[in-house]
Every structure is written in C-alpha cells, then in structure tokens.
Amino acid sequence: MGAQSEDLFLASLEKLEEQMVYIPEIEAGEVIADLAIVGGGPPGLTAAI
After folding, report:
1. Is 11 a domain residue?
2. Is residue 31 included in any domain, yes or no?
3. CA distance 17 to 32
4. 1 occurs within a structural domain
5. Half-sphere exposure (CA, 13 Å, Cβ side) for 12?
6. pTM
7. Predicted pLDDT of residue 23
8. Per residue in 1-49, pLDDT tens?
9. Which distant-in-sequence residues (6+ apart) come within 8 Å of 21 by Cβ?
10. Structural domain includes residue 10
11. Number of folded domains in the chain?
12. Which of 37, 3, 41 minimizes the C-alpha distance to 20?
C-alpha cells in the first residue's frame, strides 16, 4: 500500500498528472544493525532469509 489510495493513483495516471505526494517527516531513532542488505533481487531476498 502506498502513500495514496489506489483509486486516486489510477485516476492521476489516466490523466497523466504529475505525482505529488506529501509524506510527513517522522523522528525515528537510530537503528543499530550488524548487517545491511542492499537490493531486492533474488540474491538480496535470499540473503534476507
């Protein structure tokens, strides 16, 4: 699910409108990780498992 509803997204695509979505900034704490997986292809997904 994205930042806007699917109906609104499809309507804007049909009209070829520029996508303007406001995503508010949030204050997130620091995340300490031992491993960062970059990429979502088969190797990245395999590494995530």
Report:
1. yes
2. yes
3. 40
4. no
5. 11
6. 0.31
7. 67
8. 566 778 887 887 888 877 666 666 777 777 787 877 777 788 877 877 7
9. 2, 3, 4
10. yes
11. 1
12. 3
